[in-house]
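Dear H.,

Thanks for agreeing to be a second pair of eyes. The structure we're designing against is below in token form, covering all 424 positions.
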């Protein structure tokens, strides 16, 4: 990535995708994350749409090739070629579970934005054959989330690990994660390329891994873990994305003539939306819930920005979200903050506890645009582009100064830059 500073932004972003290209999928970052991650690949597909649409379809097809028998698409599919590279936890922590395509995988999932990426791609570069295969697979995953992961019939999936939310060490998980007895994790290889203060703490890693061990000991029975496991939350951010994913899947299914999937997906999107709105507070805000204590986790963090993606969002909620992300607690000149600026727990450089992330900023912009707030969407995209213009395709950004944090050539930052350049 030499000479990066002098390249036009779009050229640099494309270089980052190519640099992280693993062949049939894209590493989030070649050094820091040398495997396939679920929602990272969906963002990568959005980026590849603008460079090589066939490659974008390939990205999603490689993702669903790791889909398990129960239809869950795992959060990591390990790349055996990366064995020499440092990433922990390794497959044995999950019990060496493997996918039909032979790759080891984790045994948890991640935000289901692949259908959102597929719609983005399909509307720009339609391929009915690829879409047909992907629609069927993604529909299966959505069903898994709404059935196997909802043993209580609440209408929302239960998440069993903070890593499933994608916002690993977000403040809202402190209480439910705090109940887990940490185990020794050993060497923090995630701190070789990124400074320790920018990563989760040792204590959090001890708890993340303890949860993986508990799941393994329970035989990874997904419904049982969702009913009685040690960590159980409703993440409104994840649930909103699932509603949006069902809504987007319905649109593609309809256009390729898969009418049963279209109907079922639209009903699922509407039901999930109704479930979320039923538990909204007077301001229209929906909060994550700690299902073990029954308490709402009322933290103003990135999940609020994701609320913008609620399909056909009531205007009053869209307005409230826009105010929070554009000039309120989550506003930054560089995008959307992962935690409210005024929160006493805010840590400006630590991971999901303060910095700005391009993927959240971009999804929020998409939601605002769908809600008719085009100027709000454009403003968010221009903030995202400002961050990348100033310091490059960093993993995340310090919200006040825009300083670059985390890894240096990050796929979803590059992908959302490519998308934003065509949208603003
Ligand atoms: C981060 O999570 C992984 C564990 O899944 C890690 O820290 O090793 C999160 O930011 C997550 O959202 C992301 O998908 C992943 C890869 O970029 O990194």
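And this is the sequence the design step returned. I haven't edited it by hand at all.
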């Amino acid at each position: 990535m030499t000479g990066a500073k002098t390249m036009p932004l779009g050229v640099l972003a494309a270089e980052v995708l190519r640099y992280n290209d693993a062949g049939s999928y894209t590493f989030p970052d070649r050094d820091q994350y040398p495997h396939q991650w679920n929602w990272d690949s969906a963002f990568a597909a959005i980026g590849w749409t603008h460079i090589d649409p066939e490659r974008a379809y390939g990205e999603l097809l490689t993702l669903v090739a790791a889909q398990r028998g129960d239809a869950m698409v795992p959060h990591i599919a390990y790349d055996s070629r990366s064995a020499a590279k440092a990433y922990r936890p390794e497959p044995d922590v999950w019990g060496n579970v493997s996918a039909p395509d032979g790759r080891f995988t984790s045994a948890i999932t991640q935000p289901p934005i692949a259908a959102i990426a597929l719609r983005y791609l399909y509307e720009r570069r339609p391929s009915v054959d690829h879409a047909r295969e992907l629609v069927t697979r993604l529909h299966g995953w959505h069903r898994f989330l709404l059935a196997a992961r909802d043993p209580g019939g609440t209408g929302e999936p239960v998440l069993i690990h903070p890593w499933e939310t994608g916002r690993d060490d977000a403040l809202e998980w402190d209480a439910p994660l705090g109940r887990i007895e940490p185990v020794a994790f050993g060497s923090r290889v995630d701190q070789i390329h990124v400074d320790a203060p920018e990563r989760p703490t040792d204590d959090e890693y001890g708890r993340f891994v303890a949860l993986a061990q508990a799941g393994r000991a329970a035989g990874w029975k997904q419904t049982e873990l969702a009913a009685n496991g040690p960590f159980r939350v409703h993440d409104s951010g994840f649930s909103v994305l699932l509603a949006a994913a069902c809504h987007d899947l319905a649109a593609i299914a309809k256009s390729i003539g898969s009418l049963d999937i279209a109907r079922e997906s639209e009903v699922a999107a509407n039901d999930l939306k109704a479930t979320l709105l039923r538990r909204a507070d007077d301001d229209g805000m929906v909060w994550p819930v700690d299902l073990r204590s029954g308490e709402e986790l009322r933290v103003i963090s990135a999940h609020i920005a994701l609320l913008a993606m609620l399909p056909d969002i009531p205007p009053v909620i869209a307005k409230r979200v826009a105010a929070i992300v554009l000039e309120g607690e989550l506003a930054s000149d560089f995008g959307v903050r992962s935690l409210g600026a005024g929160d006493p727990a805010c840590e400006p450089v630590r991971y999901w506890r303060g910095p700005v992330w391009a993927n959240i900023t971009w999804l929020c912009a998409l939601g605002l645009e769908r809600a008719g707030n085009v100027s709000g969407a454009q403003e968010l995209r221009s903030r995202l582009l400002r961050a990348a213009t100033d310091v490059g395709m960093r993993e995340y950004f310090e919200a006040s100064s825009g300083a670059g944090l985390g890894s240096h050539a990050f796929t979803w930052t590059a992908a959302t830059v490519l998308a934003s350049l065509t949208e603003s």
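Two observations from my side: Residues 236-255 form the longest helix (20 residues). The chain has a mean pLDDT of 97.

Warmly,
E.
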